[in-house]
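Database export, one record per block. Field names are fixed; values are copied verbatim from the stored entry.
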Amino acid sequence: MSSRENILAAVLKNQPPASPLPDIGFLKGNAVDVVAQYSGVFASIGGNVFLVKDLAAVDALIRENFDATKRIITTLPELGNSFELLSATADPHTFDDVEVAVIEAQLAVAENGAVWLPEQRMGQRIVPYICQHLVVVVAAETIVPTLHEAYGQIGLGQYGFGAFIGGPSKTADIEQALVMGAHGPITMTVLILDQVG
């Protein structure tokens, strides 16, 4: 056994006993009208939010608000007839000209306007960051009041990669100049789907 293996074996043997996690039930938020709370917070951080009834309304809204002559990709099979369906096996370098990416979030968080995007929903890790405009569809019933509740739902999941994304990319300097799209999408739009399916 090498020195490295001896050290690692000794560390493994000297693990402290597991202790129960603290009760954080008191940190739960108010679940009343989380859609309105989410919409207000998301708009305040520079995002656009719309309530939509179904995926046909999603299609129409995208065509109304974005240039449909440019490349629009989606991970939602239901929108595959209207837009380019993203292939998880495509070379990531081929996404450099994506104008709009349409992705479905697993959940959203009302207190900070973030959406949870695990890699399986992104299609490819690069997609929500390289596009000019990010559109995220989230079901209204998946909006939770706080990050604590979001972590309660996603904590036991198996993710190779995932991210909370909240609003369009932006940065500001000491001269108080706000730049949108500094290192990611210029705009982010969340479409809250009011109806399942």
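Remark 1: The longest helix spans residues 3-13.
Remark 2: The mean pLDDT is 90.
End of record.
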